[in-house]
Amino acid sequence: MKWAEVSKSKNFETVREAVNKLDVNEHDAQGRTPLMLFITNRMSMGGIELLLAQNIDLEVRDKLGDTALKKAVKFKQKEVISLLLARGILLQATEGMTATAWYAARAHSEIADLLMDTQVPSG
């Protein structure tokens, strides 16, 4: 069993089994984490929530420089965006504005509005 296969299965029991057996912070050859694969393959919210409950690293960047939040913006998954924001995912990027989810959302007003309503933690 590999995360790529799990992310395409859409089967909650398969996800549960993978979470218990596989490394939830693993990276594939493109640097994507299981969460990124779940977002890309449109896993159910239940599957994504099960993965998020494992205390995974939300700030990982793949080889394209995308985070899970940026993937969720690219794939227009508003529920996932809200869930990630509630978990405190960072909106800033050390590489500058063009590397942020904010920038990726600029062409999608509903998603941009969702990000605009988020309070940025100070410090």
Strand content: under 5%
Average pLDDT number: 85
Number of domain modules? 1
- According to DSSP, the number of beta strands is 0
Q: Which architecture per CATH?
A: Alpha Horseshoe
Report the CATH topology name. Answer: Serine Threonine Protein Phosphatase 5, Tetratricopeptide repeat
Q: Count of helical segments?
A: 8
Structure, explained:
This protein is mainly α and 123 residues long. Helix 1 packs antiparallel against helix 2, helix 1 runs parallel beside helix 3 and helix 6 runs parallel beside helix 8. It is built from 8 helices and no strands. The model has no long low-confidence stretch (mean pLDDT 85).
In short:
This protein has 123 residues and is mostly helical. The chain has helices at 3-9, 12-21, 34-40, 45-52, 68-74, 78-86, 101-104, 109-116.
Tags for this model:
mainly alpha, Serine Threonine Protein Phosphatase 5, Tetratricopeptide repeat, 123 residues, globular, 49% helix
